Amino acid sequence: MSTQSFVPVGLSQWTGLAIAVALCFAAAGIGSLYTTPAIPTWYASLQKPSWTPPGWLFGPVWTVLYLMMAIAVWLVWRERGFTGAALALFAVQLALNSLWSVIFFGWKSPGLALVEILFLWTAIFLTMLAFWRISHAAGWLMWPYLLWVTFAGFLNLSIWRLNQ
Question: The pTM is what?
Answer without folding.
Answer: 0.90
